[in-house]
Design a protein that fits this description.
By secondary structure, this protein is an alpha/beta fold. The protein is 41% helix and 24% strand. A hairpin with a 5-residue loop joins strand 1 and strand 2. It contains four helices and five strands; from the N terminus they run βββαβαβαα. The protein has a single domain, classed as YqgF/RNase H-like domain (Nucleotidyltransferase, domain 5, 2-Layer Sandwich), CATH 3.30.420.
Amino acid sequence: MRVLGVDWGEKRIGLALSEGELAEPLGVVSSVEELIEIAREKGVEKIILGLPEGKHRKRVEVLGVRLEEELRIEVILRSEVLSTEAALKAAVEAGKRKKARRELDALAAATLLQEYLDTPADS
């Protein structure tokens, strides 16, 4: 099953893809329309959408409904607390230069998606 991880941000939307047990960063887009286009191109069957705390929470919940309606697939909202921090730590530990960290949003999406994939189905 192809699953897309999405780390939403006002300026950039990080994407990650899994076709099995491993999530891989896919890239960054700047609009919901691009996200939808990629989901269709890749034949995504489920989306894991990072749900932030605070002022953007409602906006992301509305986005989840839009994605479900437009793509006709299941969208699972999952807390994204600490996913960006975990991605930044991994980038620093891997020795990534600051410019290379622009893909941080894709790494955050991969972290979010991998956490979902690693969670037992019955939890």
